[in-house]
């Protein structure tokens, strides 16, 4: 496997690892001793790497996974949060800043030109579950589990709610948020939180298969489609159709659409720009 320069430079103890191969960047949450919790450092590292990937035309798809251990990610680092309760404002400014940075990072995933795939083998809880829901696609090993358990500790999972409510049916999202119960991979598939469930230990392989399929397509077309998908979701039906029609008209005029349609009619493989 060809390893990216980012991964080669990663210092020992780095909270995020990156490796690139075949047009796919794999980002690995690397805090297994802390259940891959989304610390300040890890949130910032993800934000920086997503920024770099957004401008990297060699990357066609992204996989987000966790270092092996009991958790894909346990959500926010509660030790960091608790330490700031002694601030003069009881941590208000810190909490606002932390949640703002985390929310911005989740939105980076949605706005990234490249599709992002979560590969989950273990427990994804709270903001870790939010991270899975924020990705465009998700593959789970059959032993993976998911929950938004804030209600158990007096803290409703309000920011994870944003991603869940945009991926799951309303009653499924409310069930997870109100009960805090842990759901198995099979239920996550039924509810629409993940796309595929694969044998335990093969989530990353499944995500790589998704990524390879995506990487074979015209990257500018995928970027156009991903952006339009999320934009139209926020619109009423009439506005959504009008917006999608404008996007598709511009896409029709693009070189890749002309090449793709021509290749189909000529019964040959397209040569993407």
Automatic annotation (TrEMBL):
A Pfam family hit: ECH_1
GO molecular function: hydro-lyase activity
UniProt keyword Lipid metabolism, yes or no: yes
Keyword Transmembrane helix found: no
Biological processes annotated in GO: fatty acid metabolic process
Record-linked InterPro entries: ClpP/crotonase-like_dom_sf, Enoyl-CoA_hydra/iso, Enoyl-CoA_hydra_C, Mitochondrial_ECH-domain
Keywords of this entry: Fatty acid metabolism, Lipid metabolism, Transit peptide
Similarity comment: family membership: Belongs to the enoyl-CoA hydratase/isomerase family.
Entry function: May play a role in fatty acid biosynthesis and insulin sensitivity.
Name of the protein in question: Enoyl-CoA hydratase domain-containing protein 3, mitochondrial
Species name: Alsobacter soli
